[in-house]
């Protein structure tokens, strides 16, 4: 979140400097055009300086006033407060998945079968658009936990139900623009640039997982 | 105390009183009474007036809808349904508003096609074209914002997909997206601000339309022959000739839009939008509104996230520079035998892109979309700037009046 602020601030500073320099140059030309006048009456140049500085301070002041309005559009404090979700996973059988809500987003929890794990481990990293080892994406091999949002344009991929379309790699398939994810939630084919995000989580015991 | 020297321009003393204090009467007389209209203008020249009427109807129906609509995630869908079922004539006002938006775009596309075909965007009317494309751009934004308000499945996922476009910008994308949404996902903060913006943008459009109309009245309207007015014989007065013509056009337009509102109000709507928004389930086929579909097709034609988005915005941005791309001195395509057909193909191609944009992005549709994108940019960036060097044009008449002399 801080990067856009930084960019915005730097941009604004450059705009201020630009306004200041342009107005100085313009006024300088106006003054030099009236050079004879200025020579006759030296107070003119001092007045010009006052003009330029007043306009610049005014411009900076009004531009700064935009800040609270821009800032007000960011998530409010209560939205920012991170939520956590506790999930009971004792009822999930091998090969099944459930969807839970965390911070308003769907989170996929899948108990992977032996074949799923083998498939995820055997994938060649060089073939992946966003190379990442399966072992870096799970804490326990059986359990795959993902934020169920396609990294392309934010749709929810299908593949949670047994009957759902799971795509070419037996993981998930995004119906919006045709991205295929594998059994580790990694992007394999289609327009999505990144693997599905793994949320922060920990196992409280064998049957409960805390997301967030 | 009345000044004895106050001029008596009109018979009516009230008009004189107003005119002396605010010369609005003579302004209206000049711009909408005596305004010289090229006498060969065809019915394509009525679409500007139709657009003004559309805008006013949209603003009025929108204000009445806002009296019953609640911009909250828990109540937006319910309040929309309440407008449809319980509010007196609510169904009519909402159908006028939703179909009005579709017709607004039909009319604006015809208006733009007119301008491109007859070269209305060329010297000295470039600024007109710029203002017009700017209006078109705000119109698209406003229509998208309005589409999210009923908070059905299509509304929700359209909002998600479109705001996610911004996340493709390197480094600052995610931050900009969160800033636009006011949350990490499309939520209540998003709905509230979309409503606020949807309410205010039409008034911005209204302002720009004022400039657009004022600008066209400076050099006068273009005409099907694309030659400038030279003598009074080339023109007729706005009142009564153009006014009557516009009125007839409006009557025909009114019949067509009424037929749709009363007999097929959901022809241009998506069934899935009658399902309340569910952030956990994406519908199997997300379809954009037909009037945004050509750009959606361009987005999907590229198998890369950032590339697709850049190309989509480029497709809109390139419209702004059309007056500087077409170097031909001849305005009207009627006198350009080859370019004319390439231009018509460009229009057809645009609507094919729209059709493809509403179909799944696989197989033949993906191929069509890619060919469409190539022709869209190829026509504007390659054919248009160089065509006049190879083409032999038909000889232009000396004046508009001469066209009629020949016919006799």
Major β-sheet strand ordering of chain B: 1-2
List unreliable stretches of 5+ residues of chain A. Answer: none
Number of strands of chain A: 9
Quaternary organisation: heterodimer
The percentage helix of chain A is 25-40%
Evaluate the radius of gyration of chain A: 29 Å
CATH level-1 class of the largest domain in chain B: Mainly Alpha
The CATH topology of the largest domain in chain A is given as Rieske Iron-sulfur Protein
State the CATH class of the largest domain in chain A. Answer: Mainly Beta
Shape of chain A: elongated
Number of distinct beta strands of chain B? 2
Low-confidence stretches of chain B: none
> Given the helix and strand composition of chain B, which structural class is it?
mainly alpha
Amino-to-carboxy terminus distance of chain A: 18 Å
Which whole number gives the mean pLDDT of chain B? Answer: 92
Largest sheet data of chain A: 3 strands, antiparallel
Q: Domains counted in the coordinates of chain B: how many?
A: 2
Strand content of chain B: under 5%
In N-to-C order, the SSE pattern of chain A is: HHHHEEEHEEEEEE
Number of helices of chain A: 5
Overall description:
The complex is a heterodimer of chains A (212) and B (408). With 212 residues, chain A is α+β, with helices and mostly antiparallel strands. Chain A has 2 domains: 2-78; 82-211, 3-layer Sandwich (Rieske Iron-sulfur Protein). In chain A, 38% of the residues lie in helices and 18% in strands. Chain A has 5 helices and 9 strands. Chain A has helices spanning 2-33, 35-40, 43-72, 77-80, 114-122; strands at 85-88, 97-102, 105-111, 143-147, 172-174, 179-181, 187-189, 201-203, 208-211. In chain A, α1 (2-33) runs antiparallel to α3 (43-72). The longest helix of chain A is centred in the N-terminal third of the chain and has 32 residues, at 2-33. The relative contact order of chain A is 0.11. The model of chain A has no long low-confidence stretch (mean pLDDT 82). A two-stranded antiparallel ribbon of chain B has the order 1-2. The radius of gyration of chain B is 24 Å and the shape is globular. In chain B, α6 (126-148) crosses α7 and α6 runs antiparallel to α9. The longest helix of chain B has 32 residues, at 188-219. Chain B is 65% helix and 1% strand. Chain B has 408 residues and is mainly alpha-helical. Chain B has 2 domains: 1-32, no CATH class; 33-407, Cytochrome Bc1 Complex, Chain C. The chains are: A alpha+beta (212), B mainly alpha (408). Chain A binds chain B through residues 1, 3-5, 7, 70, 73-76, 79, 99, 101, 103-106, 152-158, 174-178, 190-193, and chain B through 157, 160-161, 163-165, 167, 171-172, 175-176, 178-185, 187, 189, 193, 279-286, 300, 302-306, 308, 360-362.
């Amino acid at each position: 979140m801080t990067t856009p602020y930084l960019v915005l601030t730097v941009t604004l500073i450059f705009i201020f400097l630009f306004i200041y320099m342009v107005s100085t140059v313009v006024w300088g030309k106006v003054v030099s055009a009236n050079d004879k006048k200025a020579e006759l009456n030296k107070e003119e140049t001092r007045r010009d300086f006052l003009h330029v500085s007043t306009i610049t301070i005014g411009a900076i002041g009004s531009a700064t006033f935009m800040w609270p309005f821009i800032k007000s559009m960011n998530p409010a404090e209560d939205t920012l407060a991170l939520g956590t979700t506790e999930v009971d996973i004792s009822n999930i059988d091998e090969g099944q998945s459930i969807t839970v809500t965390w911070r308003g987003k769907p989170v996929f929890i899948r108990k992977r079968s032996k074949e799923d794990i083998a498939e995820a481990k055997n994938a060649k990293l060089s073939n992946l658009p966003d190379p990442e080892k399966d072992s870096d994406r799970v804490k326990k091999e059986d359990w795959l936990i993902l934020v169920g949002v396609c990294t392309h344009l934010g749709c929810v991929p299908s593949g949670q139900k047994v009957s759902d379309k799971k795509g070419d790699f037996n993981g998930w398939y995004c119906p919006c623009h045709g991205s295929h994810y594998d059994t580790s939630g990694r992007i394999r084919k289609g327009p999505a640039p990144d693997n599905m995000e793994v949320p922060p989580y920990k196992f409280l015991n064998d049957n409960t997982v805390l997301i967030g | 105390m009345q000044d004895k020297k106050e001029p008596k321009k009109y018979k009516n003393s009230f008009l004189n009183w107003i005119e002396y204090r605010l010369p609005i009467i003579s302004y209206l007389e000049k711009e909408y009474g005596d305004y010289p209209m090229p006498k060969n203008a065809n019915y394509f020249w009525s679409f500007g007036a139709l657009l003004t009427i559309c805008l006013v109807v949209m603003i009025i129906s929108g204000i009445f809808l806002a009296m019953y609509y609640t911009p909250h995630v828990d109540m937006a869908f319910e309040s929309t349904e309440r407008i449809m079922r319980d509010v007196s004539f609510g169904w009519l006002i909402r159908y006028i508003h939703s179909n009005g938006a579709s017709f607004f775009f039909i009319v604006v596309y015809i208006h733009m096609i007119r301008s491109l075909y007859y070269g209305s965007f060329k010297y000295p009317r470039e600024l007109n074209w710029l203002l017009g494309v700017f209006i078109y751009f705000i119109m698209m934004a406003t229509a998208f914002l309005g589409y999210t308000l009923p908070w059905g499945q299509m509304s929700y996922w359209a909002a998600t997909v479109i705001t996610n476009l911004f996340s493709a910008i390197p480094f600052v994308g995610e931050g900009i997206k969160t800033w636009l949404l006011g949350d990490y996902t499309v939520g209540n903060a998003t709905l509230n601000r979309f409503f606020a913006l949807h309410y205010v943008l039409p008034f911005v459009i209204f302002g720009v339309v004022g400039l657009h109309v004022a600008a066209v009245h400076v050099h006068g309207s273009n005409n099907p022959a694309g030659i400038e007015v030279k003598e009074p014989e080339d023109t007729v007065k706005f009142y009564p000739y153009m006014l009557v013509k516009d009125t007839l056009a409006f009557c025909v337009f009114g019949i067509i839009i009424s037929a749709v509102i009363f007999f097929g109000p959901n022809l241009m709507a998506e069934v899935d939008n009658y399902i309340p928004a569910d952030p956990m389930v994406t519908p199997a086929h997300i379809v954009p509104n037909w009037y945004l579909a050509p750009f959606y097709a361009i987005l999907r034609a590229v198998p890369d996230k950032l590339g697709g988005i850049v190309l989509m915005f480029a497709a809109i941005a390139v419209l702004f520079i059309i007056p500087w791309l077409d170097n031909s001195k001849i305005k009207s395509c009627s006198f350009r035998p080859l370019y004319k057909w390439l231009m018509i193909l460009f229009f057809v191609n645009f609507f094919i892109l729209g059709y493809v944009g509403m179909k799944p992005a696989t197989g033949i549709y993906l191929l069509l979309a890619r060919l469409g994108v190539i022709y869209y940019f190829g026509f504007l960036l390659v054919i248009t700037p160089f065509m006049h060097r190879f083409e032999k044009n038909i000889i232009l008449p000396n004046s508009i009046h001469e066209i009629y002399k020949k016919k006799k």
